[in-house]
Amino acid sequence: MGTKALGPGLRSVVWVQGCPFRCQGCVAPDWIPFGSGRAADPQGLAAMLLADPAVTGLTFSGGEPMHQAAGLAQVIAAARQHRDLTLICFTGYRLAELQRRPPGPGVVDLLAQVDVLIDGRYIAGRNDGVGLRGSANQQVHFLTERLRRWEAELTGGPRRAEIRIRSGAALLVGVPGPGIAEAFGRGVEQASEAWRPDLPPGPRRPPARDGNPAQDRQSNAIAEGGRGLR
Predict the structure, then answer these.
(1) For residue 207, which of 57, 89, 127, 195 is within the disulfide window of CB 3.0 to 4.6 Å?
(2) In which element (H, E) is residue 173 found?
(3) Greatest mean pLDDT range, 112-126, 169-183, 212-226
(4) 42-49 and 69-80 helices, crossing angle to 10°
(5) Exposure of 78 in the CB half-sphere (CA atoms within 13 A)
(6) How far apart are CA 6 and CA 225, in angstroms?
C-alpha cells in the first residue's frame, strides 16, 4: 500500500535500518540500531514496491539511506526498468559532504538517480511544521527538474501524516509537525494499556504499538506526517 504523506503522488517507501546520528526527538527511533533489520534482495524489493500499479514514485528514508546506498541504487534502477518513477531521499548528511567524502559505496550512484534530496540532521527545536523537511535547518535540493513543479509544497507546504493500523500494530507515516509524534506515542501507550490479556473477558480495544514496522512491530498503519532496504 502506497502513501501520499512522503512526497507528491502515491509513493512506496523504503525505510532502511541503521543510523549513526541519533538525533534527539527522532520520529523513527526503531530504525536507529544497526543490524536489527531484515535483509532484502534489491530485485525482489523493487517488485514489492511496484505491486500497486498506481505508485508513481519512491521515497527512501530510515535510518540513514546513505549507509545502504549501493543496495538502494540497485533498487531504484531495477524499479525504473518497469516504470517511470520519481525518487525522493532523506539523509542526515549534507549534500556537500556526500559529494566531497561519500560515507560508503554506492553514494555517487544513488545521488545520480535522486530527484529530490532532503539533507541535514533533525533538530527538534527547529521543527516548524512546514514542508517535507523535518526541521528548518534541513534543505530540499532539486537534483533534477522532475519534481520542480511541487517546489512550493515540498519546501513550505502543509504536512501530511498517516496512521496505519494492521494486525494490532500502528505506524505513523510522514513528517510529523511539532507535538504529533508525541501525541501518537501517548495514544499508543494508552491503547496498549487497554489491551491486557490478564483482564477478565469483555469488550476491549485492540493493541497498538509504537510507530515503526520494526521487528515484531511489522505493520501497515495512516494521520497527516512517519517513516525499510533493511
Answers:
(1) 195
(2) strand 169-174
(3) 112-126
(4) 50
(5) 16
(6) 8
